[in-house]
Write a structure and sequence with these properties.
heterodimer, A: 367 residues, alpha/beta, Ubiquitin-like (UB roll), Elongation Factor Tu (Ef-tu), domain 3, Rossmann fold, six-stranded antiparallel sheet, 28% strand, B: 155 residues, alpha+beta, 4 strands, 20% strand, globular
């Protein structure tokens, strides 16, 4: 009796699994969705072959939707409105979509496959995003796990971006990754220097793209970038600002401070940069140099645990603790954050605890 | 070992480099089910379950998180711990929704200096699937090593 029952369960499970496998194989090798039409903003029409994710379809047409994970469905950044033809919202999308967004037909373009004609809406500014053929011309060690990479633009030869924005780097297939992937990095160069882009990248242990950048990418190699993306930028107000960063979170502030210098900004700003030890600090002299040209600017490096014998005389503790020591009240201030998600969350909590309005705290966790 | 289509698909995902650089299997030629079974047996021999190991790992990660990547000494165990997080998430290779912050916890034994590291995804894979990754994988955790470092209070 028990054996019969188990045998029945086994047979039914096997049939179910076999059918699922057949469906997957058919989807991959047999099903032909034929030509499909993608209508964008009721204006532009693309005739494409169905079957691929919308993000890929648009990328092939040189329309770049921002995505920090390269289409794996793990960042939730590549949102767009699919008015018709997108099918039901998938379980892989729901963690990233609010009820309001779902009601407004917002979808993740990496998860929606184009299987029929669809009608989508994307922000007009995305049409200005370009793909850039570049050459890596310089790799500079900043710390034991951070490097600055310079990419000289070849085609097109110039880029226009706003300080604080990010770009996507195409990591090619290599021993550690059988697929091309895109990853987002903040631009770390002066917007006026429009013929190259600097990126500051911190090695993520076993990270697909950072491992390639550190172990495989060499000066002289061709690299594809696309962008610029993102809304992380200085506001138009005159409010005094607190910048807080750690690690590769340094990147957008290099760009922002360069832009402040270009525009002779006198806006008050204090930049707290945190490291675990003195070995984690980088570009301190470059940042200090901004104090000479920006009237209202001060750079404050903070070390959590100075090594014995390091002779560190600066601020000690977590970067958030240094902010708390410096300010009893941050109402009226604006906060700009870039770094690890944990640091951003902790700093935002400190800011609001000191009276900073939540809508005056700017950050881009994926930049 | 005969595998079901589902197990074959799982092995394919674990060996692929789609989710993490180099995949989850390293140079291990065993089937994932064999790896899981043998690690569970080894843990049992050491007097622990995968659930207990994952629970201890999660406790240590939680302890270190507020220090934002800086070392913290454990109050009772001879351990120091740090937990660093990075942008992005790691996805569980098993066929269910599961995304984990890209966080790496490192534990160092204060006397021996031996270190082990894991991600939040490792904690999940050990707790829910009993999977410690294949030998040679970047985040492979040897049951004996974990027990020696994290469970000195029990040995």
């Amino acid at each position: 009796m028990v054996i019969d029952f188990l045998l029945t369960v086994l047979i039914i499970s096997s049939i179910g699994a076999a059918l699922a496998l057949v469906l997957v194989l058919c989807e991959k090798y047999v099903v032909n969705y034929g030509p499909c039409k993608v209508t964008i903003n009721n204006e532009r029409e693309l005739d494409i072959q169905g079957g691929s994710p919308l993000l890929t379809v648009l990328r092939d047409e040189k329309i770049f939707i921002p995505s920090a994970c390269g289409g794996r469905g793990t960042c939730g950044v590549c949102k767009c409105i699919i008015k018709t033809g997108g099918g039901p919202v998938l379980p892989t999308e729901t963690p990233f979509l609010t009820k309001e967004e779902q009601a407004a037909d917002v979808r993740l373009s990496c998860q929606v496959k184009v299987r029929n004609d669809i009608d989508i809406e994307i922000p007009e500014e995305l049409f200005n995003i370009r793909e850039y053929e570049t050459v890596c011309t310089e790799i500079e060690e900043l710390t034991y796990d951070m490097r600055r990479f310079r990419f000289e633009l070849k085609e097109p030869p110039m880029i226009k971006f706003t300080a604080g924005q990010f770009i996507q780097l195409l990591c090619p297939k290599y021993k550690g990754s059988s697929e091309e992937v895109y990853r987002a990095y903040s631009i770390a160069s002066d917007p006026q220097q429009n013929n190259f882009i600097d990126l500051i990248i911190r090695l993520v242990p076993n990270g697909i793209c950072t491992t390639w950048c550190f172990d495989y990418l060499k000066e002289g190699d061709a690299v594809k970038l696309n962008g610029p993306y993102g809304d992380f930028r200085l506001s138009d107000s005159d409010a005094p600002m607190i910048f807080v960063a750690g690690g590769s979170g340094m990147a957008p502030f290099v760009s922002i401070l360069s832009e402040m210098q270009n525009t002779n900004s006198t806006r008050r700003a204090r930049y707290f940069f945190g490291g675990n030890t003195t070995k984690d600090l980088c570009m301190a002299e470059e940042m200090k140099a901004f104090e000479d040209v920006l009237e209202g600017f001060e750079f404050i490096p903070v070390v959590a645990t100075p090594e014995e014998g390091s002779n560190w005389t600066g601020e000690v503790g977590l970067v958030t603790e240094a902010v708390q020591r410096a300010y009893p009240d941050l109402s009226g201030y604006e906060g700009y954050l870039c770094g690890s998600p944990g640091m951003i969350d902790a700093a935002a909590k400190v800011f609001t605890g000191l009276g900073m309005s939540e809508d005056k705290i700017y950050y881009d966790k994926f930049a | 070992m005969k595998q079901s289509p589902r197990d074959r698909k799982l092995e394919e995902v674990l060996r692929s480099t789609k989710l993490v650089a180099g995949g989850f299997m390293g140079t291990d030629t065993r089937h994932p089910i064999e790896i899981i079974e043998q690690d569970v047996i080894e843990l049992g021999r050491l007097g622990l379950t995968a659930g207990q190991v994952a629970e201890r790992m999660a406790q240590l990660t939680e302890l270190a998180k507020p220090r934002l990547g800086n070392w913290i000494d454990h109050a009772t165990l001879k351990l120091r711990i740090k937990s660093e997080d990075y942008k992005g998430t790691l996805v569980c290779p098993w066929p269910h929704p599961g995304r984990f912050e890209k966080r790496i916890t490192t534990v160092e034994h204060a006397e021996t200096g031996k270190q082990i590291s894991w991600t939040d995804l490792n904690i999940h894979m050990i707790a829910e699937h009993g999977f410690f990754e294949g030998k040679g994988a970047f985040f492979r955790l040897e049951p004996t090593e974990i027990v020696n470092i994290l469970f000195e209070d029990l040995t």
